[in-house]
Amino acid sequence: MRPFTYCVPTDIRFGQGTVSCLGEALGKYGRKVLLVYGGGSIKKTGLYDKVMEQLKGYEVTELPGIEPNPKIGSVREGARICKEKGIEVVLAVGGGSTVDASKAIAGGACYDGDPWDLVLDSSKVKAALPIADVLTMSATGSEMNPGGVISNPETKEKLEVNNPHLYPSLSILDPTILYTVPPKQTAAGTADIISHVCEQYFQPYDGAYIMDRLCEGVLQTAFKYGPAALKKPDDYEARSNLMWAATIGLNDLLSRGKGGEWSVHPIEHVLSAYYDITHGVGLAILTPSWMRHVLSEKTEARFAMYAKNVFGIDTGDTRKDAEAGIDRTEEFFVSMGLPKTLHEVGIGPEKFEEMAKEAVRTSRISWDAYVHLSPEDVLEIFRMCE
Ligand code: NZQ
Ligand code: ZN
Question: All domains of the chain, ordered by start, with CATH?
Answer without folding.
Answer: 11-177 (3.40.50.1970), 182-384 (1.20.1090.10)
